[in-house]
Amino acid sequence: MKNIIILLKFSFLIFIFFNVSNLFAQNIYFTDQSNEPISDVNVVVSHPESNLVVNLTSDINGKISLSNYFIPSYLKYDIIASHISFHKSISEHFIRDSIIILSSKNTLLDQVVITAQISPRTSSKSIHKISVIDKSYIKAKGAVNLQNLLQDQMNLRLSQDNILGSSISIQGLSGQNVKILIDDIPVIGRLNGNIDLSQINLNNIERVEIVEGPLSVSYGSDALAGTINLISKKQQQKKLSTSLSTYYESVGHYNFDMDFGLKIKNNLFKVSSGRNYFDGWSKGESFQLITSNALADTSRFLQWKPKEQYFADMQYILTNKNYNLRIFYQHFNEKITNRGMPRLPYYENAFDDYYYTLRDNFGVNFNLRLKENENLNFLLAYNIYNRIKNTYFKDLTTLEETLTESESDQDTSLFTSFLNKVIYSNTADSNLNYQIGYEVKNEYAKGQRIINSKQYQSNYAIFSNIEFYMKKLTFRPGLRFAYNSDYKAPVIPSINLMYPFKDFKIRLSYAKGFRAPALKELYFEFVDINHNILGNSSLKSEASNNFHLDIDWKKNLLSKTLFFDLSGFHNNIKNLISLAQSSNSSEYTYFNLGEYQTMGARFQAKIKTNRLEMSIGNSLLARYNSLSSGQDVKRFSYSSDYKASIFWDLNFWDLQLASFYKFTGNLPSFAKLSDGEIVETNIDKYQILDVSLSKSIKNIGEITLGAKNIFNITDVSSFSIGQVHSTSSSSTSVGYGRTFYSSIKFYF
């Protein structure tokens, strides 16, 4: 009997021990179907046989903690979870570090943003107008790289060079005036002034934030037209997370990537890598499910060049109550093959070009919480960009290759960038938030096509932003003091205002921009069979003034949300750096255009219900013709875009239907030839329509089937009309026609 009593006491102690210990591990985690945490989930925890009712909100890690409440872990509780962007969840759970997966409704209208912010906040509360493209949009779009993702955005225009890749313009400004960041770190390696957007993969990207207009105070040079910031995935709830993805497109894209994450207490190790392969395409090419070797005839020359990419991303993240440490390494390797046309008279040999691009990015990001509302963010990054071009003489009968002897056929160029940025932010005062920081950026270029074989450029800056809250009005002035080793940099100011009025938000901003010519514009020569671009060491720096007005209206009506946005802008740039034909008809060089202006307006409307979101938009852009001051030509050239999209949750089999449409209008302009003749140029209008059908399989994966470029657009006509010469016409590449694709992702 005594032994039985001891056994009962021991069992009771064990029971008490496990239930008391569970009080300290009573957490619930909310994630989406991709295992990513969801913040700001409204949660009600209750028990039907007691008066217990607990109301909580999930934190940035998607967690709510019930450790402060006496909740026995052996009972099941009713849990009601709601979020504006996810379907409501009602379930029963034991409170033992449970994970609840919420099903996404559609794309988000309001998300937390970080680009140019003093502290993270929702996009509706940001003093900048920020467009957010989230992962559900990326999935529905079937976007593999940044080029795929941005081709249907308003006020953004993409162009294609089948050797140099794709480029982008924002508000009528392109090239070096567009800043592209990955986690606030500038992407380097421009050709013809542009970053090839097809080299920026999205396999590890959580969302993309776009700010139109200058952010020169926060990000310095190259941020005149706009800033595109890609935010990578940095969180994970499960101890082990693995995913595999495949992508196939009927034009000849074969992609594969994987993602692996291991979480041990506060330590997170993440690795993602993959391979993208494109076998090239020309108009009239027949469909092939599996790529085959190219024949040694005239069909070997392709309009869209074969391309192979390998990429890897590794991160170590240590999270603590008072600090967050992230160490990262990114690698990218691309090979473009340009097979030449067989040479006359017997077609037995040809010249082939190979273009290799290698990128390596290393960095450390340390965020320290000094006090309750004081943070210190330390960023250190080192970027390497290496481009190699080789030309071979190929015997098409034996397939032997020999490097050509001409020095102009071979090239190796190396560019590096060192960045150190430290920002102190203080949000302790409810009426006054501010940040102050410094930035050091050193760039180095080396290569046989660089003047004197090597060149350096250094930039040093101190900057500050202050936000005043006066009743409803938010007032944010900013200032940047900079030093450039080659050019005298002016003081760069900015002023932003935001005023909410009933259901309206009014944003007004002025910003000054400054851009020193880049090393490539000054010293680099790029010569191949299709290009002959020369640097100009006499270039002047650019200076700009930007004005922006935005008015948005948002109204929640029962189960519907209505959203309207109207914005306008004006850019005035002095000494705009442009690329133009020199007196030698085969050479192009950079020069200062003088005064250049763009102005425009944009309108968007959205309606959203629990299962449906529809949006339409229109933008009008005017570009100033600098030749109008001395010639009989129009002062401004106008172009317009139209956009429409639909996201529809079909309410059966967990299917989502999406459609994306964009009409890109004519692009007229004027140019002056070396003989003084004025010519009118124009790129014709075109329209793109994509559709997709997606299905998520809970805890297993997701599949997307779709069609791109349904109107089968390949090239659009471009022409020039001179005063003396007759009309000449050519074509500009837009796409490779109608294609079908499948994207499958598995979770383990």
Mind explaining what this structure looks like?
It is a single chain. 6% of the residues lie in helices and 58% in strands. The two termini are 52 Å apart. The radius of gyration is 28 Å and the shape is globular. It contains 5 helices and 48 strands. It is mostly beta strands and 748 residues long. The strands form 8 sheets. The chain has a 22-stranded antiparallel β-barrel. A 5-stranded mixed beta sheet has the order 10-16-17-14-15. It has a 4-stranded antiparallel beta sheet with strand order 3-2-5-6, with no helix packed on it.
Compact summary:
The chain is built from 5 helices and 48 strands. It is mainly beta and 748 residues long.
Number of strands: 48
Mean pLDDT across all residues, rounded?
A: 84
Task: Tell the overall outline.
Answer: globular
- Counting helices, strands and paired strands, the structural category is mainly beta
Quaternary structure state of the chains depicted: single chain
Rg is 28 Å
Major sheet attributes: 22 strands, antiparallel, barrel
Strand content: over 45%
Q: How far is the first residue's CA from the last residue's CA? A: 52 Å
Number of helices: 5
Low-confidence stretches: 12-25, 723-727
Helical content band: under 10%
Write the layout of secondary structure elements.
Blueprint: H1 2-23, E1 27-31, E2 42-46, E3 53-57, E4 63-65, E5 76-83, E6 86-94, E7 98-101, E8 112-113, E9 121-122, E10 130-134, H2 135-141, H3 146-150, E11 156-161, E12 165-170, E13 173-174, E14 178-182, E15 185-186, E16 205-212, H4 216-219, E17 226-232, E18 240-249, E19 253-264, E20 267-278, E21 307-319, E22 323-338, E23 349-371, E24 374-395, E25 401-403, E26 411-429, E27 432-447, E28 454-470, E29 473-484, E30 492-501, E31 504-515, H5 519-523, E32 525-527, E33 532-534, E34 542-557, E35 560-574, E36 577-581, E37 588-592, E38 595-608, E39 612-624, E40 636-649, E41 655-664, E42 667-672, E43 678-683, E44 686-697, E45 701-708, E46 715-722, E47 728-733, E48 739-747
Parallel strand pairs: 1-7, 14-17, 33-37
Antiparallel strand pairs: 1-4, 2-3, 2-5, 5-6, 8-9, 10-16, 11-12, 12-13, 14-15, 16-17, 18-19, 18-48, 19-20, 20-21, 21-22, 22-23, 23-24, 24-25, 24-26, 26-27, 27-28, 28-29, 29-30, 30-31, 31-34, 32-33, 34-35, 35-38, 36-37, 38-39, 39-40, 40-41, 41-44, 42-43, 43-46, 44-45, 45-48, 46-47
